[in-house]
Amino acid sequence: MKVEQIYTGCLAHAAYYIESKGVAAVFDPLREVQPYIDRANKDKAKIKYVFETHFHADFVSGHLDLQKKAGAEIVFGPSAKPAYEATTAKDNQIFEVGDYKVKVIHTPGHTMESTTYLLIDEKGNEHGIITGDTLFIGDVGRPDLAQHVVADLTEEKLAGYLFDSLRNRIMPLSDDLIVYPNHGSGSACGKMMSKETTDTLGHQKKVNYALRPDMTKEEFIKELLTGLTAPPGYFPKNVLMNIKGYESLDKIMDRATTPYSPEAFEAVANETGALVLDTRNAEDFAKGFIPNSINIGLKGSFAQWVGEMIPDIKQEILLVTYEDKEKEAITRLSRVGYDNTVGFLKGGFDAWEKSGKDFEVTNRIDGSELETLYKNKKPIIIDVRKKSEFDSEHAIGAINVPLNEINQHLAQFPKDKPFVLHCAGGYRSMIAASILKQRGWQDFTDVRGGFEDISKTSIPKSEYVCPSTLL
């Protein structure tokens, strides 16, 4: 049986495509559906079903556009209550895709409607399981997301359901089955996902901490809930979009691909209060950017950081991109529900600069320059990496303010003395720098190579710091 995994690294997301005798099915599609349609056309196949493992939190699914464009039937697992036409399957129900069969296995825990799909080949042999966020490679889905939508679904209650689903519905299955999860390493939907994106169930039973056969339910719940960080703020908003429906990506693209001259761009920004989002790389942004713009580089974890740093999913956005990157930026914004892009700067930042309009810059230095500065002046160093990264190793005396918490800890950034900003490699620190510039900070410097550069210098490092010294 051929199962095609369609993996999108920037979201650590896996969709799946199967086809038999001119009939195809797609599992957990992303917002832009044309690639799936093109794939089916290549096989001269019709997409009959779009299967959803659950109401996703970290992206907006493309199921509604696939229903509209391909005539696909949307299928959710038991207990799902979407606000649009869809099939809510029964536990153990079987769907036919040509000579293949797809069996519904209800596995609540990550969410109540979470469902695993058992794939059966043309000979009747069980091939694999598409597990959504129920079972990852090396991990299982976090059980604390649904409570942000339904308050009664506490994380402890969901963790208990997940324990039962894994023990009673997944682990009794054959060791030879291939596990096809919805996410890989880098996703916020789990704690310790592997970089591998498939494995056998038998191997997972041996190495996945959550599948230990001697683990009690109480131990499972405690271990699963330990170390969970707060989910990104956009997660519950994406869930609601997946439940209630959304606007077609085609309409969003038509509206968003409006080109503006520098003069018109400035006027629209002033009139609408739109956020100016600059998606160029950090080095180019540092050399010149539109005042009050925010930098989140397209070549990085763009969608996740947009979701973390722009609280209002309905915020109107004006884009500054490299030439011919506008549609990519719009698509990647819409993947996480930011559908209100109102246009882009025609000609990019070069056009703005040539028009004679004011722009700002921000200082950047490399590790060796910081080393000299450190020896002479002992500057304040603010590290915007995650706490786990900081605790692993950091410059002695550095202050840790994780990027996703920057708005809650602005008081830790001094305005009366200079400071140095860094992350791991320069991507996140430029996001922080652009936010600080927008809020009025001026006297700071960013380390372009981040801690990767700092680690190569003689600046003293520590592998642990008492949390009380971070304040």
> Which strand order does the major sheet show?
1-2-3-4-5-6
Strand content: 15-25%
Structural domains: how many: 3
Question: Helix/strand/pairing class, anyone?
Answer: alpha/beta
Helices and strands in order:
Elements: E1 4-8, E2 13-20, E3 23-27, H1 34-42, E4 46-51, H2 63-70, E5 73-76, E6 87-88, E7 94-97, E8 100-106, E9 115-120, E10 126-132, H3 155-170, E11 178-181, E12 199-200, H4 201-207, H5 217-225, H6 235-244, H7 249-256, E13 259-260, H8 262-272, E14 275-278, H9 282-287, E15 294-295, H10 302-309, E16 317-320, H11 326-335, E17 341-345, H12 348-354, E18 363-365, H13 367-377, E19 380-383, H14 387-392, E20 394-395, E21 399-400, E22 419-422, H15 427-438, E23 444-447, H16 450-454, E24 461-462
Parallel strand pairs: 3-4, 4-5, 5-6, 10-11, 13-17, 14-15, 14-16, 16-17, 18-23, 19-21, 19-22, 22-23
Antiparallel strand pairs: 1-2, 2-3, 7-8, 8-9, 9-10, 11-12, 20-24
Helix pairs in contact: 3-5, 7-11
